[in-house]
Amino acid sequence: xxxxxxxxxxxxxxxxxxxxxxxxxxxxxxxxxxxxxxxxxxxxxxxxxxxxxxxxxxxxxxxxxxxxxxxxxxxxxxxxxxxxxxxxxxxxxxxxxxxxxxxxxxxxxxxx
Amino acid sequence: xxxxxxxxxxxxxxxxxxxxxxxxxxxxxxxxxxxxxxxxxxxxxxxxxxxxxxxxxxxxxxxxxxxxxxxxxxxxxxxxxxxxxxxxxxxxxxxxxxxxxxxxxxxxxxxx
Lengths: 112, 112
Fold this sequence. Notes:
The structure is a homodimer. The first copy, chain A, is α+β, with helices and mostly antiparallel strands. The first copy, chain A, has a single domain, classed as Arc Repressor Mutant, subunit A (Orthogonal Bundle), CATH 1.10.10.10. Chain A has helices spanning about 10-20, 25-35, 40-45, 55-65, 95-110, and strands spanning about 40, 70-75, 80-85. Chain A has a 3-stranded antiparallel beta sheet with strand order 1-3-2. In chain A, a hairpin with a 5-residue loop joins strand 2 (about 70-75) and strand 3 (about 80-85). The longest helix of chain A has 19 residues, at about 95-110. The model of chain A has no long low-confidence stretch (mean pLDDT about 90). Chains A and B meet through helix 1, helix 2 and helix 5 of A and helix 1, helix 2 and helix 5 of B.
């Protein structure tokens, strides 16, 4: 069993910072939906079960303000809007991987 | 820059499972507060800024139902209740570590 990390006040603040940015059940799912490259609003919405357009719009704005997603407007008629992850978002790779591993592990613990 | 993980449907479900269990801003903070061993309700409440007794009670019950916390009643007068993390909770070590690392990294990205 891996050893436990002790958490200083600064460490706890760092965990809280990460949780604040990634809060709620949608943000990581949106980032994962964008793993495979640029997507349009409707494409992202289709990929994530149960998310409303209003919620997706709010979450995309918050992800943008945290430098995790960029919004590109393509000059066409009508104009096309595409979303893509930033290089900063790639730093979430370890968090996504750790959550994924733990999700599998937890499901086995609970369901057996 | 670490390579990106592709996410299958099962992987996405595992991430969602983890997010559902750890949802909200309090659960990981409660688990971190219990890192150093058994604590009483009031001790945990004192450690976590802004959490109400009602919220702490609800979160502890959810953590218990997910095999992450155990509640021990000590036969004294009046009876004493202590909370401690389970061995299963120790498996969250990598998630807490990844969130902590990313929280520091993100603060530098945003604040510079």
